[in-house]
Design a protein that fits this description.
Blueprint (H helix, E strand, L loop, with lengths): L19 H6 L8 E5 L4 E5 L14 E4 L2 E4 H13 L11 H29 L5 H8 L3 H13 L1
Antiparallel strand pairs: 1-2, 3-4
């Protein structure tokens, strides 16, 4: 674990501000869900990783592999592609700015997909509670609450 040298105080409500430099480095945006872990003497938090494929964003047929979720289709494609691509044929890594822009676009498209899925599920189950919607979609109740706020703001 790295030390940053940055110190922040808790306010009277128990809140703390994550410094902008850290938010930028970790690609944490406004209203991004965070998850907390507790060890014996430390509190660790990180950006919440949703239960969706890290490549295509689907929620169906997921496999948990090395701390990531990957769908069956992407797993099959990886198996096919890795057998046919030689190391020297691999494209070079994109410039950092392009990579960041690409990840932001993917994040926005995933958010849009999630908004649509929650909206569709709410229409199909108008009497469902947030907990029931969360169970149907395989996400947390608090994430449902956040998405409903975003949908009301539209």
């Amino acid at each position: 674990m790295k030390k940053t040298g940055m110190v922040r105080q808790l306010d009277s409500l128990g809140r703390i501000v994550i410094p902008k430099e850290i938010r930028d480095t970790m690609e944490i945006g406004v209203s991004d869900p965070m998850e907390f872990f507790i060890t014996e003497k430390e509190i660790i938090f990180r950006k919440h990783k949703g239960i969706q494929c890290i490549f295509c964003g689907t929620f169906d047929n997921l496999i948990y592999y090395k701390d990531q979720f990957i769908c069956g289709d992407c797993t099959e494609q990886m198996g096919d592609e890795t057998q046919h691509i030689a190391l020297e044929d691999m494209p070079s890594a994109p410039a950092p700015n392009r990579n960041l822009q690409s990840s932001l676009r993917k994040s926005r498209s995933k958010r849009g997909e999630m908004l649509t899925k929650v909206e569709d599920t709410m229409k199909a189950n108008p009497e469902a509670t947030q907990n029931e919607l969360a169970r149907i979609l395989g996400i947390s109740q608090s994430r449902i609450c956040q998405i409903q706020k975003e949908l009301r703001a539209k």
